[in-house]
Model the fold of this input.
Amino acid sequence: MSPVSTSAEPTAPAPDRNPLRVLIGGPRGALESVLPPLVFVATFELSGSIGWAVGVALAIAMVFAIWRIAEGKRPTRALSALLIVAISAYVAVNTDSAVAFFWPRVLVNLISALAFAVSIMVRWPLLGVIVGPIVGTRMRWRQDPELLKAYARASWLWVALCLVRAAVLVPLIEQRLIWGLAVTGAIFYVLVIVTVLLSWVVIRRSLPANHQGIRHPITSSSTNPQTI
Done:
């Protein structure tokens, strides 16, 4: 997310790991977010069967997971989506309620908001934990007070994102607005894009003008090239 520096600090390259692209997920990430809930609702409305609905949603999530594994890519996003769909399917089948399919998503968002908030408090902001390996700095950003502060500030945006998503889901579930729930995947994906872009702005504005960006944390080794 920053220009290439001539700093003497050795930085492990991160091939094809643009943090904006990774966090947003691209077209496939959009499909992984949008299709399972949409297909679940569409199948339920057409068939009237929760069993068919969860079966099709699980099949879609499995296809994405297998697709990533077959390409040799890290399947974390797809496997996480598959796990959420599986838990959602279990809840829907056991409660015999289509809208109950979306309660686990509320819980996941509340837990995620709490995790981001706690990570900021303990000075391990999750945004830095996620982005560091993407850009090749691993956890060296924690040795840079300015980067640590920037990641902490931007992580609050992700707390807000998770709380907003939960706040949108709860009334839709309680009012049993099934088609409203169907399109939340698309809405939330747009919110992720906005959050990623705002995070980038917050990080840039939080760093001093002479800082070279997230790919070049200022550590003791970067200020003293002789130090290994």
